[in-house]
Amino acid sequence: MKKPSIQQAEDFFPAEVAEYVSSYSYNGTPYGTGFRYGEGDGVDEDVPTGMVHDLYHAMQDEGVPISDEARTIYNSFVKYIHEKYPGFWDTYKIYRLYVNVFAPKEQAYFHCDCDEEETDQWTFLYYPIPDFDWKLNDGGWTEFELDQKIIGVMPIPNTLVRFSSQINHRATPFRNNHRFTVAIKCVNQNESLVRPN
User: Fold this and answer.
1) Following CA atoms 21, 24, 27, 29 in sequence, which dihedral angle do they give, to the nearest 10 degrees?
2) For tag attachment on the chain, is the N or C end more exposed, with fewer CB atoms within 10 Å?
3) Torsion of CA 129, 106, 27, 137, to 10 degrees
4) How far is CA 32 from the centre of its chain?
């Protein structure tokens, strides 16, 4: 495996795009409508955590986002990831895009987003602007396991985190609110998917 990498980009979207993506994440897909139970993340497939609202899945959607809103969000991530990481789309493609939600105090599993160390994949997590004033004690960060340490990335609104998909990680819940993120999973264009989730 290449050396693991975690990078954080604050103020990722311009204000109007951040507002659109955040509003859709929190309000465009009402909790329980359009969502399905989350995943066991390869740890315990019989006991999924969280809920998921799929916007795009290359293995299921024939390369087309599922709605006009999903297409707008998809195109926004393509545009602004290109601006932040020029040339990224020359090598990689999105194979999955979805909104993820965890209930207050719901514990997620540590997991990797791909199974094989040789696989060249990246995961992006976007923290939308919440419908409350987030503070440190509210929790909600993403934890990464690196070199026998846990490193936490705070859910700063309108922040994008990019990391090597082989890094073991998990979401942590908010104390009193639902935690929404948008996940974008990417694979090298020359590789087939190792684990289509």
Assistant:
1) -140
2) N
3) -30
4) 19
pLDDT in tens, the chain (197 residues): 466 789 999 999 999 999 999 999 988 755 445 655 556 555 555 566 777 888 888 766 555 557 888 899 999 999 999 999 999 999 999 999 999 999 999 988 898 888 766 678 999 999 999 989 999 999 999 999 988 999 999 999 999 999 999 999 999 999 999 999 999 999 999 886 644 44
Closest CA to 185 of 140, 122, 128: 122
> 197 in a domain, yes or no?
no
Collapse the DSSP code of 120 into the 3-class scheme (helix H, G, I; strand E, B; otherwise coil) and give the result.
coil
Task: Give the total number of structural domains in the chain.
Answer: 1
Nearest to 135 by CA among 107, 156, 152: 156
Q: How many CB atoms lie within 10 A of CB 35?
A: 18
CB 17 within 8 A of CB 73: no
What domain range is 44 assigned to? 6-188
What's the CA gap between 110 and 167, in Å, rounded? 10
- pTM for the structure as a whole: 0.88
Residue 195 lies inside a defined structural domain of this protein: no
Q: How far apart are the first and last CA of the chain?
A: 20
